[in-house]
């Protein structure tokens, strides 16, 4: 007995796989560079209702409670965000690695955190899936996985975290030196050459 064909989700009319992946990437970077660095339940709730929800597909009904002052104990949110930041950072490191990135993508697929999708032009891609009682780190990493599975080379060559300010972004030129453009002033990108590599002008 043959197995049923894999489920392929259709993107909304007018949406393109490339722009959808751009949105997944932007939402993940917004979380990493802004939301997770604070201790504001309002910012987290706004991110979940906005950038995340607009890119994640819900296949099963799930009840979620709103974040409010009454159900978030002091220190709990900070602890959650700290753990999430660590897990997401590890996931990004895996995606950057040529070999381990394959495992990162497969883990997201096996967990059902991403599904295949297709736009109106027939271009194939990936969409994050919101599962019931899904952990925050998995929600963020599902956005990363949907983008990674479409264009893994960007993660291998252009993704980096600035050693000066900690911002994570995609820039192949800056990834080579590990410093963002805003903090490049005062940091030399020039590598010191050994005498054996220096050729004097006019030398025979």
Give a nutshell description of this structure:
This protein has helices at 17-33, 41-52, 76-96, 100-110, 136-148, 152-157, 172-175; strands at residues 8-10, 57-58, 114-118, 124-130, 159-161, 168-170.
Proportion of beta-strand residues: 5-15%
Total count of strands? 6
Shape descriptor reads globular
Mean pLDDT: 84
What low-confidence regions span 5 or more consecutive residues with pLDDT below 50? 62-70, 190-204
Descriptive tags:
single chain; 204 residues; alpha/beta; four-stranded mixed sheet; two-stranded antiparallel sheet; 7 helices; 6 strands; disordered C terminus
Architecture overview:
Helices cover 41% and strands 11% of the residues. It is built from seven helices and six strands; from the N terminus they run E-H-H-E-H-H-E-E-H-H-E-E-H. It has helices at 17-33, 41-52, 76-96, 100-110, 136-148, 152-157, 172-175, and strands at residues 8-10, 57-58, 114-118, 124-130, 159-161, 168-170.
